[in-house]
Amino acid sequence: MNDRDKDLAIAALNRIMETELAGVVRYTHYALMVFGYNRIPIVSWLKDNSIEGLAHAHKAGELVTLLGGHPSLKIGPLLETEKHDIGDILRESLEHEKTTLTAYYELLTITQDKSVLLEEYAREMIVQEEIHLDEVNKMLRCPGEITPFQM
Question: Would you say residue 65 lies in a domain?
């Protein structure tokens, strides 16, 4: 991997780290704002997403330092809509997961055929993010509805 590709990979990994950290904050906030009969399983799911996001951010940061870069101290954009209905939270989660997925695809494009380590990392994370998107999408559907939710 040449220096230019390495710099692009570091920048992409830092964006991933920032996006994942924004997810940690977002999912932590959402978990605090859930009320109603289904609170316990939904809060548990949101907390799990927050914990996973922190692990993903840490892994991206480790790869930044592996490449000789400096991990970002920034956090990605945080949108406070003041809407805390479960449907609103899930739609915002879906948008966040799409943003994160895009960041991993950008890393894959940068590293494809240049670094097996980074390419495989990007692919592994893309699989995980696509599964997350599917989970949220299914949660947004009405019972019995098989057509994917469209935003």
Answer: yes
| Residue 35 neighbours by CB distance under 10 Å | 12
How far apart are alpha carbons 70 and 93 in whole angstroms? 28
Written as one letter, the residue type at 123 is R
**Residue 114 CB contacts under 8 Å (≥ 6 apart), including other chains:** 1, 5
What is the reported pTM? Answer: 0.92
- Of 4, 3, 5, which Cα lies nearest the Cα of 114? 5
**CATH number of the domain that residue 27 is part of:** 1.20.1260.10
- Write out pLDDT tens, residues 7-44: 999 999 999 999 999 999 999 999 999 999 889 999 99
Q: Indicate the length of the chain as a whole number.
A: 151
Number of domains in the chain: 1
